[in-house]
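Before a colleague's protein record goes any further, I have to sign it off. What it holds is a sequence and that sequence's fold in token form. My question to you is simply how this chain folds and whether the tokens agree. Thanks in advance; the entry in question is below:
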Amino acid sequence: MRIIVAGGDGFCGWPTALYLSKQGHEVTIVDNLVRRKYDAELRSNSVTPIATLDERVAKWKELTGKEIKTFIGDLNHYDFLSEVFRQTEPEAFVHFAEQRSAPYSMIDREHAVYTQSNNVIGNLNVLFAIKEHAPDCHLIKLGTMGEYGAPNIDIEEGYIEIEHKGRKDRLPYPKQPGSFYHLSKVHDSHNIMFACKIWGIRATDLNQGIVYGLHTDETELDPVLYNRVDYDGVFGTALNRFLIQSAIGHDLTVYGAGGQTRAFLNIKDTVRCIEIAANNPADKGEFRVFNQFTEYFSVKDLAERVQRVAGEMGLSANIAHIENPRIEAEEHYYHAVNTNLRDLGLEPNLLTDDVLKGILQVALEYKDRVIEENVLPTVSWK
């Protein structure tokens, strides 16, 4: 299958491109390399050293004999995107190419506007490119479980059956996003659903949980293929931050009470979910939603697990509750449905102590690269 991976230089996109290439697909990466520029802007970095995209794809070809084509450019530039479609004739378009950080979107007006314009307009361009150049192409779009928020009822997969004043209907599940970033994903979902209805586009919206882990079988082949490990208060997840904090002897900083509960999955499951969606495409005109996660944990749960694992590795990790920079419920109900991908064959890789120890070991190996002041939050929602 001819597959474009947009955002293929990023944390989810890079291992996905390698995995799909290994499975025999003809993979093309489209990326504007802006994720690397965010590091410069924020004076941050990945704990693991990251090779250039050219070095990465060259090493992959050297090791496997498989070629991954690359196009460097922005989805917001429609002429560029159209040319990519004309040259590659994609059968599937995997869309990771969006600004993905809630804190980044909340820095100030400029970052909020950038996040919304970059994400929403880029996604609209993809929809028009499919319509005009590859109408049978299957859009596999990375959404987020954060679109739903934390409602006091079970979270269904995209749609909900409701009864109101004696009438019933199946409607899109209500959205309660918690940042301008999450709002951009909601706008994307609405635009994709509309395009499917009027143009007959086939699309799968993958509402992904928070991704953890470092290596897939492919990235582990050589240090040049290593994936990112972000730990700062803008792009780092709570789990990564706790692991890096324990590696450098810093308190594990839990925001507020720590009862905030979110969905999670291993990076190995991310790449497998993309493959499942590609091999089982949506029907023409269908807007399909899968909740892409395997487990959920509270922030406090994660801190306690990291504390215990760190202790087993001879590290002392103290848990400290700090003021929450976000506007969010710190204790709430959370139960979400995730049956569609399992029904199609997903066999989850769960968050085990061995997984935590593996990431922590890498953090210890590269702890001299950690910029200590970046492990604390710098962005406030208030």
Remarks:
- The first helix runs from residue 13 to 22.
